[in-house]
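Quick note —
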Amino acid sequence: MKLSDFDYHLPKELIAQYPMKPRDRSRLLVLDGKSGRSEHKHFYDLIDYFQPGDVLVFNNSRVMRARLIGRKKTGGKIEVFLLKKIGRLGIDSDNRKLKEIKSAIGNRQSAIEIWQCLIGGKGRKENLEVEFSKGLKCKIIKNNGDGTWQVEFNKSGKTFMKLVEKIGQVPLPPYIKRTSASSGDDSAYQTVYAKYAGSVAAPTAGLHFTPALLKKLKAKGVQLEYATLHVGLGTFAPVKVDDVKKHKMHSEWVEVSKNTLNAILKAKSEGRRIIAVGTTSVRILESIFSRNKIENWQLKIGNFQGWVNIFIIPGYRFKAVDAMITNFHLPKSTLIMLVAAFLENKAGKGKGLKLAKKTYNKAIEKKYRFFSYGDAMLIL
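Predicted structure written out below.
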């Protein structure tokens, strides 16, 4: 599979620049993955497609104010975009040795915190010091060679996170062409059920839900379950290789309670549907079920905490997810690849990508709104 296989032309005017108000007034394309038939509804119609016993799985990660604007000692502006915490002592998600980071920071044992970051601005280099407001400072300690940097901050733990929430900016995607996030984005770019801070981008399929819609779903007998994947570079990093199979996903942190996992296992054993809200929820479930090679739904499993980097492309056989809610994704992205893979499981081998492109073209024809603040699709 080539990267160009997942390309499509999108008119710029269909890229949503502002959220829909109310949230559930977004449009909803309902797609039958087996037949390829589609219907055009609104998100509040979602409830008509669920039945008692269905399990909806949400990603309850909360978006951090990940964009930090600081100054070099010379006065030049530098943007530090937080991606993921490596740790106070430098043990990162790829398990690189502690001594590697210790050497970079002079083997200090002070109350610092180290993050993997994107750096914007002129003069980016190792040992560059940056000052922010409220006494927060950082030092660039390592160029990772993949477009990211390791950055040491002078604060750590809860103190650091409180400062980030005070001085940071909402990290809206670059295709939202505004000079900065508005006050409305503070709430609009969070799901109504967001709980645990750690994402640098919203799990956007969940942005359409309202408290009232969640209440209606529960009243109908739909089971609501929550898991956590902190959205990082793995979700939105562009694919830069022509052979998509050679793309390497960045790791993202996942936490799921044993109660949630065993509730899903119970539902599967009883033949009930598991519906993932968003591609992040899909990757949570498929990572865990693939890693544990779960085929016997009678099993009991414990809490899950760990880094995942599952890359789902056509040819992947889904283990847990029966249906999904998702937004319309960027051309050539890992997300549209996942959608094509899911449709292939529904429509048959070799048909997923073709159906994905056909559906996207139909959405363009019908003037659906695309990307983070755009409309949604339900794939059954």
